[in-house]
Amino acid sequence: MPTSSSTSSSERLSVAVAVASFAFVLGALTISYELLVRKSEARYGMRRSNVVSPHSSSPKIDALVNDLSAGVHYAVYALGTSRTEEGIRSDVLDPDVGLTYNLGMSGSSALRGFEVLNLLNERPSLIIVGVTPMDFTITGILQGAVGIRLARDSIASLRGTEREEERGPAAAMRTLTYATLHGAAPRRRRSLGQWFDLFQMHGDVLKFINNADAVAKQENLWIRGFLGVPRVATPEHFRELLPTYIPGEYILERGPLYAQLQQAVAWQRSRGTAVVFVRIPLAPVPREIEDATGFDRDIRQVAARCGVRYIDGRALVGDGFINDRRNFTDGGHLNVSGATAFSRALGAALRSPKEAPAKP
Amino acid sequence: MWFNSFSFLWFLPTVLIAYYAIPSWRGRKIALLIASYFFYACWNPPFVLLLAASSLIDYTIGRSLGRIESPGRRKLLVATSCLANFGVLAALKYAAFILGGFYSVSHVIGVTSLPPIPVWIGRIVLPVGISFYTFHGVSYVLDVYRGRIAPKKSLIDFMLFIAFFPQLVAGPILRAAQFVPQLETRRENDPVDWMRGGYLIILGLFQKVALADNIAPLANLVYNDPGSFNTLELWVGTYAFAFQIYFDFAGYSNIAIGTARLLGFSIPENFRMPYIAVGFRDFWRRWHISLSTWLRDYLYIPLGGSRRGTLSTIRNLYIVMGLGGLWHGANWTFLVWGLLHGTYLAAEHLLQPVLERVPSAIRQSRIAGIAASVVTFHLVCLAWVFFRARSVSAAGSMLEQMLLPNTLVMNFHTPIMIYLAIGAVAVAIALLASGRDLARHVPAWAWGASAAIMLFLTMFTWGDANEFIYFQF
To answer: Nearest residue on chain A to B416, judged by CA atoms?
Structure first.
């Protein structure tokens, strides 16, 4: 800023130019942004819509924590890796088992999902564990630590933002500001990090203004934690099981992690929560690779020891489904159409009278 | 009442309208005094009495110092002021800490029969801004004692000096010699003053809301659970905290300076791009300038400064920085932070003769300057670990992890690039705001446009809405 305190005519001119440029730029930015906000509200409504497609577990956990703080509790949680996240469609399960949230997190062991539920102190009526060998590897546990951190951070930040409401003139000022500038209201304001996510992930601005979690590519469908990917597997990808190192790690590391699973399940059941293990359908070649590790046998034995039901997705949907690559994005993950069909079958199976727990 | 709140959004315009509507200068000062006490009462009304009592004591002692000539009685008056001001501060801020330390030492030497520390001691509420206005009062009494300023006759002027709301709760720490003379004559603003004040307020809000609050989640993430982060992540979290606290405090100071400017008053700057400092003496000439100069003038120099040899200088540096650390709060972490800075300053003092032997062409080269800045910044960051960590042992574990690298893989979801971008923007702004030579070359339209962009981002972005960090001190 100019430092002289005496006001010459040139300084007066400078001030006039600065004020004019300030008013022009602020007006242009504010009006443009407000128009965008009004457009978003016209399309998606004032309230947060379910139009999001998060790229990672952060918005997923943030969204869940927000729902819980708003008093929305879920009857059913699906835990597991990306196979669960992309394979169990929350809205399709709703009519059969109750309001469902998919807490599957890419690369993260289902055991970490149990920890997140404990952190949130949630007591659902049913937990669906989408079991894969990755759940029983150190890689899955380490990658899942990020989810735990995010849950802690999300809970802490939610508590930290509680602020004493202004009263009197301050409250009137707040109401006036938010009525004039919708974009300045807390439900519309976005942090710089969220804007960065949006542009990095090529999200849709209007959806993002409506819902802060709508930051990722919009061809994907996101419904309460379920990530619906429309891509269809190429013949090459249909035969792939990624990451390739997981079967080897599973064979070496499964023992203690199965013990942890048994403890987690026993704890949930002692609180009155039913648990079911579900193996999401795989393409034939990846399934053979996984079965060669002894996973199918292992998981049946653990289910029996835990006294919980085990549902093999392949048996639910049949060979026709698993041989059709149009249901998959790659050998290990269902696409949105495969997930929809599988979730319908899973819902029906869960609704039907319970079978006896799996036998070893 | 936070500067970044709707309460302040109506308070400031109301005060400005009322202030400029009053024709007489005395009336304006009374209005400002009432506004300042109202501002302070918004936190906890009863503490207004403490503020008033502290002001009355220092005013009375100042007046007495003007009348009394006996050296012994004058010293007694100064001691009374120090005892009253620092006694209240010690009782409210440090009682639990001092008692806890006493009990720990007693336990170590085998005395275990002490009664338990009363529960109420842990429940003492610390009045907001007490560390700041205590220093105002003491500096006034010491300046009158030393004859640097004449005792203030007007009680209203004196109470306004102590309670002037822009700087009351988190500084900058005012000196009577800087502020009181401004109360003698009617303050008038010209358009440039209005523009400068408005710009500083917008800059301060931008630094707080758009920068500090957006960086805070990353620092909080790491410091809330440091055990689950690796070396690189801990460093990134520490860089984040370094910039968070800078933008938070510099933002507050800029709003305070800008608000005072709108009222026609001048408050000295508190920050001057501290992270480009080329050494620790330089750092403390740039960081929280009002505190470091207060400690220099009222503690370091009276202790002997650097005039009595190396050992005495080092002792003085440790005393001043240790007390400076404790000024921030009654916690061992602040003490260690201060002592660490004392160590840095002592090391710099000892290395000075060695550095002076380096040819000036090398010493004054741009590369040497950049290297010195980088080293200084990283050592400052290491000290911030103590300042931010929950305990000294937690800080120790973090430092071990930071200095003995295990992995350099970054697992943050947090988009790190955004913080780098924030850093780049912040450096540009700091250069514009502080570099006066550079500022003269910036056209007027650019000032207006940059203020508009900053205000827009302040209104429409969101961070972790925290109160200013320095409110707690």
So the answer is: A193
A-B contacts (CB, under 8 Å): 165
- Provide CB contacts within 8 A for B224, sequence distance 6+: A152, A153, A156
pLDDT tens across the length of chain B (473 residues) = 777 778 888 899 999 999 999 999 999 999 999 999 999 988 788 889 989 999 999 999 999 998 888 888 999 999 999 998 888 888 887 777 777 777 777 777 777 677 776 767 666 677 778 888 888 889 999 999 988 888 888 899 999 999 999 988 777 888 888 888 898 888 888 888 888 899 999 999 998 888 888 888 778 878 877 877 778 888 888 988 998 899 888 999 999 999 999 999 998 889 888 888 889 999 999 999 999 999 999 999 988 888 888 899 999 999 999 999 988 877 889 999 999 999 999 999 999 888 888 888 887 888 888 888 889 999 999 999 999 988 888 899 889 888 887 665 555 555 555 565 566 566 655 555 554 545 566 788 888 898 999 999 888 886 655 555 555 55
Residue B354: how many other CB atoms lie within 10 Å = 8
A152 and B5 within 8 Å at the Cβ level: the answer is: no
- ipTM reported for the complex, 2 dp: 0.77
Distance (Å) of CA A260 to CA A67, A115, B99? 29, 11, 45
What is the nearest CA distance from A86 to chain B, expressed in angstroms?
A: 20
Contact assignment for B210 to A181 by CB distance below 8 Å: no
The catalytic site residues of B sit at 328
CB contact under 8 Å between B224 and A18, yes or no, is: no
Residue B37: how many CB atoms within 10 A of its CB? Answer: 19
DSSP state of B182: G
pTM summary value? 0.72
